[in-house]
Design brief:
The chain is mostly beta strands and 201 residues long. It folds into 2 domains: 41 residues, no CATH class; 146 residues, OB fold (Dihydrolipoamide Acetyltransferase, E2P) (Beta Barrel). Helix content is 9%, strand content 43%. The strands form 2 sheets. The protein has a 5-stranded mixed β-sheet with strand order 1-2-3-9-8, with no helix packed on it. A 5-stranded mixed barrel has the order 4-6-7-11-10. It is globular, with a radius of gyration of 18 Å.
């Protein structure tokens, strides 16, 4: 019978806590079965890792783009009980930096496989067709697979992910976010104007 267990693990500089549906323990010498069920991902950032102002977010980012999610690659294991998902983003425009190609990849912690899901508590996983304004850093991890396009990570884990629906910023998560919540309901033009103001010398 499955039962809930709690465990924690260190991933990069963030401590990650999950509630994971347990498996029947493997016999000595047997291969541990893959995780099943649904895990809830909660990230505890290191001090200063998540920007609290738009200016700080802009300054920390090497690339800021408007784009649309065009494809999701299958969730991949990064460690036991942990998934990461690569989203292919079609770049409409770059506000800061240069996107060498019209498509880039942005990795998010979390994901879904046929038997196991890792659902983030503090941000939403990308979905095909969504409209995003993304503040990004180059993903220089040597462990990430080569998928043919340049890789990026969101600045400040979730702070650099601004989602728009019907032209207005939304925040479809239960936990409050100090930076993004300041702009909820604003039009994309209003947010872009605020970013442009921070970019002026």
């Amino acid at each position: 019978m499955k039962h809930a267990i709690a465990f924690s693990m260190l991933l990069a500089t963030a401590a990650v806590s999950m509630c994971l549906m347990a498996q029947t323990p493997a016999k000595p010498g047997a291969t541990q079965p893959p995780p099943r069920g649904i895990a809830r991902l909660h990230i505890t950032p290191a001090p200063g890792q998540v920007p609290t102002t738009l200016k700080e977010l802009v300054n920390l980012s090497s690339l800021i783009i408007e784009g649309q999610v065009t494809k999701l690659l299958p969730g991949r294991d990064t460690s036991p009980g942990s998934l990461e998902t690569d989203a292919i983003i079609s770049v409409r425009s770059a506000l800061k930096g240069v996107a060498a190609n019209q498509q880039i990849a942005v990795a998010q912690r979390g994901g879904v496989t046929s038997i196991f899901s890792v659902i983030p508590a503090q941000y939403s996983l990308f979905q095909v067709g969504e409209d995003w304004l993304l503040f990004l850093l180059e993903d220089k991890r040597s462990t990430a697979p080569n998928i043919g396009v340049k890789r990026y990570l969101a600045t400040g884990i979730w702070a650099g992910q601004f989602q728009f629906r019907d032209g207005r910023l939304i925040l479809p998560v239960d936990e409050p976010d100090r930076l993004r919540s300041q702009y909820v309901g604003q039009t994309k033009e209003q947010v872009l104007q605020a970013i442009s103001s921070t970019l002026r010398p």
